[in-house]
Write a structure and sequence with these properties.
Rossmann fold, about 220 residues, mainly alpha, 11 helices
Amino acid sequence: MDGTLYHTPEAMGAHVGKILIQKAAETLSQDPDDLAEEYLKRRDEYRSNTLTLNSFGLEGEKIFQNVWDEIAIEKYVVRDSKLIKMIENLKNKYRLFIITNGTGRQVERKLTYLGLNFHDFDPRIYCYDQGWVKPEPAPFLAAIESLELKPEEIVYIGDREDIDIEGANAVGMKTIFVGGPSARSISSGQASSGFTSLADLSCSDVYSIADIFEI
């Protein structure tokens, strides 16, 4: 959800990362500065803060949720009238759903601050509540089962190729990459006219979804 429905401020990402490293260092009785380099190296490998924390033998999901509970999300996530209108129009034509690496408590707070009603999304797959982490197939398969559709009849929208697009592609869903042409398509010289090397379509920001679905 972060980076897809709203642009994640760099300040928020840096703040969360700093606190996670501090929490991990406290639990491991290490100096935060000494741990930071190894933590960031593992995060690049695991592509998830939760899995990175787990790799140190810590309870990643619990620590991650506790950190978000401490953060004043309203400082970074604010009401978005344009997004609200787009979601309202989309739900009148399509069934909306969410698959997100997070807990229900954390994600529903963010949706509320955005001005959205989380009940408009069904199913709501909160991976950390189930012990899952995207891009593993379990959350995507759960969504397919709940929606009672063929995978190719479902469009998954995300801002991370390694987490969102790869995971959805693996189970046969159609995909839209939010954030402009993919880095991989640019490096391979394939970026053009809204297509990426991994996703079926790409767009510059979430508001462009309205044009794709003609609403």
